[in-house]
Amino acid sequence: MPLKNKVYLLLTTISGLEDVLIEEISELYGNTIEILESRRGWIIASIDSNSPSTLIDNLIASSRSLERIYTILFRTKLEIDCIKTAIESTSIHSMFTPYTKFAIKLDKEKYVDVDSYQLVRILGDLVCNTIEKRKGYRPIVSLDNPDIEIYCKVFNRELIFAFDITGPKALHFREWRVYLHPSTLNAIIAYAMARLSKAKTATRVLDPMCGSGTILIETGLAYSKPMLYGMDINIRHVEGTLENIRRAGLESRCTLKVGDALSIREYFDLSFDRIITNPPYGIRELSYCRTLYELYEGFMKSALEVLTGNGYITLITPRRRLMKSILRKFKLKVVKRKDLEHGGIRATIFVLTSY
Length: 355
Ligand SMILES: C[S@@+](CC[C@H](N)C(=O)[O-])C[C@H]1O[C@@H](n2cnc3c(N)ncnc32)[C@H](O)[C@@H]1O
What we know:
Elements: E1 6-12, H1 18-29, E2 33-39, E3 42-48, H2 52-62, E4 68-77, H3 80-88, E5 101-108, H4 116-135, E6 140-141, E7 148-155, E8 158-164, H5 187-196, E9 204-207, H6 214-222, E10 227-232, H7 235-248, E11 254-258, E12 272-277, H8 292-306, E13 307-317, H9 320-329, E14 333-342, E15 345-353
Parallel strand pairs: 5-6, 5-7, 9-10, 9-12, 10-11, 12-13
Antiparallel strand pairs: 1-3, 1-4, 2-3, 4-8, 7-8, 13-15, 14-15
Helix pairs in contact: 3-4, 5-6, 6-7
The structure holds S-adenosylmethionine.
């Protein structure tokens, strides 16, 4: 890196879901986007520089597992001389006027033993010196309201120097979300759950603890085939799901009920080939159950009663020890398992079958 006729991109997702992002991109763009490197939570890809902006706009509009997108200016060793030479060899000065305000956003992997404050100061100085040398003035640093945000990723003993081109909001913010649940699942995770469950080929997908409907909506927007069924014990959340479903334009494919996930059969006289859900993680969120074990055990028993012979049950939880006893009790087979890190919580997606 860099070759002249290529644009290099740094693409981020939820830590642990890099494979999902790579699969999705390959499915959408084939060889047009070449994946060069995959790390936890981010990947590096290259595209042909003939029409990069159309492709990038397209990627932003169509990917469901992408969180942010950056164009890479350079990648170098984490040494001041190397960084200085690299910055001076770019045409970064062409982006600055005497009034342009900029900020450095440092994203350092936890294990790298460097003083972040010092490093940001050094990087800022190197940018200012380069602009001053080329243009005769020093640019303005503004952390609150920059015109240009320079993103610096530090990992191992390397630095990637890039620009955030995602736009004002991270891409997990979805237009359809008008009702916000207090424990909303990140939409990227919901999409990943649908993808890992192979919901594309499913006929009926049920989320019996649907909250605000994130899993149903992400499944429905990604895949046109399955009919969507949702349930929650709290009527307010069912009404909220309906608002979100309408906003997403999925009402003709969706049936919602107020009901208990511990007795799904009472509410739906149907079988489902995918049951995908995000149960409560903690005691605080429980309704009618005394313990979390009681909820997970009751849900699993009830889900297995309505699951088709070759169906999958997919759930996300940080309660791995509890899941171990559930898997043993119901003799479930783990088809796939993904460990994620998000918002300070380490959760696991389990895709399960009973055959
Ligand atoms: C973690 S939240 C789901 C959030 C949802 N994935 C979203 O993105 O909005 C868990 C949901 O399970 C519901 N719930 C708890 N016990 C239930 C039960 N026995 N039957 C049905 N729903 C239940 C809660 O009301 C809550 O909305």
